[in-house]
Amino acid sequence: xxxxxxxxxxxxxLSGGCAQDKEAVSPFQAVxxxxxxxxxxxxxxxxxAAPENRREPWLIFxxxxxxxxxxxxxxxxxxxxxxxxxxxxxxIHHLLNVGGKPxxxxxxxxxxxxxxxVHNPSSEVYKLEGSVVYVKGAxxxxxxxxxxxxxxxxxxxxxxxxxxxxxxxxxxxxxxxxRSFQDTWMTSRTDSHRLYAKDCWIEGAVDYFYGSGDAxxxxxxxxxxxxGSVIVAPSHKNVRFGYVFRNCIVDGNAAASDGKQKxxxxxxxxxxxxxxxxxxxxxxxxxxxxxxxxxxxVFAEYDSRDAEGNILDLSQRxxxxxxxxxxxxxxxxCRATITKEEADGYVxxxxxxxxxxxxxxxxxxxxPSPAKLKKKGLKVSWKAVPAxxxxxxxDNDRVIGFTKEPIYNLSSEIKGNLxxxxxxxxxxxxxxxxx
Length: 435
What we know:
Blueprint: E1 30-32, H1 43-49, E2 58-62, E3 65-68, E4 71-73, E5 80-84, E6 90-94, E7 96-98, E8 112-114, H2 125-128, E9 131-135, E10 141-143, E11 146-149, H3 150-155, E12 162-166, E13 171-174, E14 177-179, E15 185-186, E16 194-198, E17 201-204, E18 206-211, E19 214-218, E20 221-224, E21 230-234, E22 243-246, E23 249-252, E24 262-264, E25 272-276, E26 279-280, E27 298-302, E28 305-306, E29 320-322, E30 331-333, H4 340-343, H5 348-351, H6 360-363, E31 374-376, E32 379-381, E33 390-395, E34 398-403, E35 407-409, E36 418-423, E37 429-434
Parallel strand pairs: 1-2, 2-5, 3-6, 4-9, 5-10, 6-11, 7-8, 9-12, 10-13, 11-14, 12-15, 13-16, 14-17, 15-18, 16-19, 17-20, 18-21, 19-22, 20-23, 21-24, 22-25, 23-26, 25-27, 26-28
Antiparallel strand pairs: 29-30, 31-32, 32-35, 33-34, 33-36, 36-37
């Protein structure tokens, strides 16, 4: 049974002091908090309680905390919007691996061990959901959350250890962190599915962004954590665009700064990946790409630059590939560069909207900070922010309440700095205003 939180919000905000339910005063339908101050203590319980087959966003706010759990978004849980308070302090994590054995000495109750490989579509692993977060519901949106697979992060070794598996159309990620070692993030196995990520940090060493679907990543950092890291392993068959990285950064730790890193390798079918306006903060191997078994449809770059902004020499990039297996030719070739005209075609307006006009950038628009904050006694007010669905009120970094109106009544004097941020209709947090 859900419990209503922040009952103090109902006092003084409502006309005549009458009580209403939480949705009357909060822009979020549910709040998750480990300390008991929310509707739910776990993210999975909040997802389980969400209505099925929604066609409008169901907003779940997650307070700062370390949530050690596996989260599965079923197919029937559409339009789940998972909004974290702070990406560095709101962490969903678990200790999972795929196809390997638990580390020696690891307590069984602290390890989830999946017997089969996620790289095998007929594997039973899909029944076991071998990922920290597994998204099956369409129109999933998340921001300000770290997604970690503790196995990969702690061991800095394989086997496969997924932090995220995006297996639905219209999945959008904003200002999030993804960390593991091998296979950090699997994208859809379905070519027609779309994925958009902006301002995200993706960390790993082996094929750490892999799968199929049309995926556009903008202003993201791809962080390599060992010598010889490989970023992508696509398996596209009939996509229009494949993996597109625009205005992204390739970076890494000291071990990954030895000039042996690769942009990707072709997993299955006829994979596609292009890097456009990429800043390489660490040196890559001159060939840039490597073999895996398939022949790529497109593995190419445009306007790649070093950390100082100098245009890189791409003349030694790999163009000849060796295939293996019954479904792949023994050899094939692919261009390593695309022209400016071609690069200009790999844009949001062509990749993301599709036939249904999906526009995740609108969800990510940050509302401005509330102006004219003032406090009189326990009453706080501010100028309404246009298009705000509501507001979150903070005492320093502690969430103390929510409201839909530009007024809030404190239960007691605050101990730190009072801050307010507006929330748009998709749940995205705006810029904080400070009293």
